[in-house]
Specification:
By secondary structure, this protein is mainly alpha-helical. It contains 20 helices and no strands. Helix 3 runs antiparallel to helix 4 and helix 3 runs parallel beside helix 5. The longest helix has 35 residues. The two termini are 24 Å apart.
């Protein structure tokens, strides 16, 4: 346990918090029925968590450097557990969304400290091993979320996708106290709270505007005002970061094409690979009538192929430049999304299998090597900032993807069956439309909406892949789960952040 204890503790918390990004996907129809939730409510059940995680990740990581990483890890796990209890006990959609946001805050504290704690606990080859295991765990958690969600939803019920976090959190806290040593960063570092607040306001306002646009329109006063708030917040963030002594992200790093390309790849990866999945899950259960377990098993090709490719890719692709592996993987994800845009009123779950398989292969290529490529693109002293930025952009990509693809879905659907019927069906209420809209019309409209969302996701994946291929010119020592030597061996004081 002296060797495996710290790694077990950190990976257990990482797996749990990343699993919760996607575990709710299969439970969305049951949540909608139990809480009388609308489509926008369901979107915020997903995005409330992902946005809090993305917006607070860098700021909490900086605070952990000052206050102690193990201390923040434990505090974050406790907050995560209490918020999970609140999610499970929620009596309405508003309470569930609020609890999910608090859960995301706890997850940010956990996620921001994982790699620095590993960097302090392991040295040399053991550190490379630990980072490789952590990469595999983090890469597979999001893909496995829908599977676990289906089993729990059809078994004890959707509330147990949150209750199950309680014993896991207790185990994670005990292991952390028992085996993980405390570590801190530079004593003189200050937390960039102004940057944290302005970035959170930008991300939240932008996502809110996109979610609301599907209901009130892009030209409505509320949408335009919210977009203006997002734009002003982004400008304020840039100004703050340029003047901060210890910024969340050194904007000079964005002048490096390789680093910017990796960030574009990160935001496109989570958007294209995972953000359209919630809408397929709603279609499978409410339109095709599948159970949560059967609906989750339809998504198995994505998880299974990503695991297999990630496992064998590290050896087979050792030494291949990261831009080919990551860029090629993103192109495969984009192609997989395009392959799913073939639905019609008579389509069954089998139409999704080829596209999910292609996307799974791409996911297995991208996920393990993304952080390592970011670290290789910046000086070693910026390793923590680079790792945190990649994880932040990944979660932001997922949150924005859910919002954008939901808007595309409902826009295409309302062209066929009207605004109100489209939002009711997309929110899991297809059965409630019987009598006003025929089952065939709903199936045809939902298929058209999913095709539009898949085409958009495919375009995002392809664009991200091209950006990586064109902009990333670094040559890390290895890919697919192994960080380059320059980045894999930072001192504990410069251990990876996020």
């Amino acid at each position: 346990m002296r060797t495996w204890g710290p790694l077990t503790a950190v990976c257990l918390g990482t797996f749990m918090l990343l699993l919760d990004v996607t575990i709710v996907v299969v439970a969305l129809p049951d949540m909608a029925r139990a809480l009388d939730a609308s489509l926008s409510d369901l979107q915020w059940v997903i995005d409330g968590y992902a946005l809090a995680l993305a917006a607070l990740l860098l700021g909490v990581g900086a605070a952990a450097d000052v206050l102690g990483r193990r201390r923040i890890q434990i505090a974050g796990t406790v907050v995560f557990a209490l918020a999970s209890l609140g999610c499970g006990l929620a009596s309405n959609a508003e309470v569930l969304v609020a609890a999910r946001a608090v859960q995301g805050f706890g997850a940010a504290a956990m996620f921001a400290t994982t790699l620095p704690l590993l960097g302090a606990a392991y040295q040399g080859k053991r550190r490379s091993m630990a980072l490789g295991v952590w990469g595999a765990v983090s890469g597979g958690a999001a893909a496995l979320g829908p599977i676990f969600g289906g089993l729990l939803t059809e078994g004890p019920g959707w509330r147990w996708i949150f209750f199950v976090n309680l014993p896991v959190s207790v185990a994670a806290v005990w292991l952390t106290l028992r085996w993980v040593p405390e570590s801190k960063g530079h004593a003189a570092r200050r937390v960039d709270w102004a940057g944290t607040v302005t970035f959170a306001l930008f991300a939240g306002a932008l996502t809110y505007a996109v979610v609301r646009a599907s209901a009130v329109g892009w030209t409505s006063g509320r949408t335009l005002v919210t977009l203006a708030v997002a734009a002003l917040s982004l400008i304020a963030f840039v100004v703050v970061e340029r003047r901060a002594a210890h910024p969340l992200i050194d904007l000079r790093l964005l002048r490096k094409p390789a680093f910017t390309g990796i960030l574009l790849g990160a935001i496109g990866y989570n958007a294209a690979a995972f953000a359209v999945i919630p809408y397929f899950s709603i279609w499978l259960q409410t339109v095709l009538g599948m159970s949560p377990i059967r609906g989750s098993l339809v998504l198995l090709p994505l998880a299974a192929t990503s695991f297999v490719v990630a496992a064998v890719g590290g050896k087979l692709l050792h030494g291949v430049p990261a831009r080919y592996v990551i860029g090629g993987g993103l192109l495969l994800i984009g192609a997989g999304c395009l392959a799913m845009a073939v639905l019609d009123a008579g389509s069954t779950w089998r139409a999704l299998v080829p596209g999910l398989t292609l996307a799974g292969i791409g996911t297995g290529l991208v996920a393990p090597g993304l952080a390592g490529a970011a670290l290789a693109s910046v000086p070693q002293e910026n390793a923590g900032m680079a790792g945190g930025a990649v994880n932040t952009f990944r979660q932001l990509g997922y949150a924005l993807g859910v919002a954008v693809f939901g808007t595309v879905l409902t826009s295409r659907m309302q062209d066929a069956i009207g605004h109100d019927a489209a939002h009711t069906a997309a929110g899991g209420g297809a059965a409630a439309l019987r009598g006003s809209v025929s089952a065939h019309e709903v199936r045809d409209a939902f298929a058209a909406g999913l095709n539009g969302a898949s085409l958009t996701a495919g375009a995002v994946g392809l664009a991200a892949g091209l950006a990586v291929l064109l902009m990333v010119r670094t040559k890390p020592a290895s890919v697919a789960g192994q960080t380059p030597s320059a980045a894999a061996e930072p001192t504990p004081e410069k251990a990876l952040q996020g």
